[in-house]
Description:
Structural class: alpha/beta
Largest sheet: 4 strands, parallel
Oligomer: single chain
Shape: globular
Strand content: 5-15%
Amino acid sequence: xxRSDPAHGIRDPPLSSTGHEQAQKTGxxxxxxxxxxxxxxxxxxxxxxxxxxxxxxxxxxxLVRGMAAQTQVSxxxxxxxxxxxxxxxxxxxxxxxVCPASHLLSRQQEALxxxxxxxxxxxxxxxxxxxDTHGKNLVLPPLIxxxxxxxxxxxxxxxxxxxxxxxxxxxxxxxxxxxxGVGLPKDCKSNGPVVTILVTHAVGVNxxxxxxRNRITxxxxxxYCSVSCVQWKKSQATLDISDQSEEEEVEPxxxxxxxxxxxxxxxxxxSDIHLKT
Length: 277
């Protein structure tokens, strides 16, 4: 598994054993949330976009593992797509000197391909568990990795101001939501609803939520594997962005497009209650 040179002082660490357990709990919780919202899990196409950093990829795989354990019916394996635009800031030195963005993506795809090959071999021998030295199960749960997916974001521009980062996440959010059901691998067959899951870093959670709101709000603390749910409300097709709470500290929103935007309803925000039960 790829790691950056420790001499640079920058690492791409994997999840801890606790992190893997929390990711699986979160996957099970997502199934419960879908059931609560009357989304037919057995008919849904689930597309997971994840930051290409290792801890996010591990989280995405953990989500799939937890969803599979929680589902009582046969379901379409979720699709995983690596989305550079969901990555965290890092710094210019990381992508210029340690690992260019395109190199990071290709190396992570290679690692996933090797893990898939190991999974096929293990299942051929009726083996569902192969642990590495950290206790991580290297056998993948049922999933589809979309190696043909190409995100619009291919590099990072530095220095990136906070508002530039918000603009990036807004563009990525629009791309992921609009393209989730487009160009899926041939072995992905479903005519049901499309559920899009975005796996990102702490600062990215706030940026994504502000993107759905179409305004800047005060960032909130986000714990690992917190969950936010956003739904499209067809009955309220547009939102006047001038209608906002006086208590919120906000800035002008023109950088997110301004004017009238579709109404998205955030009905669950950075919740980690599922990890406390």
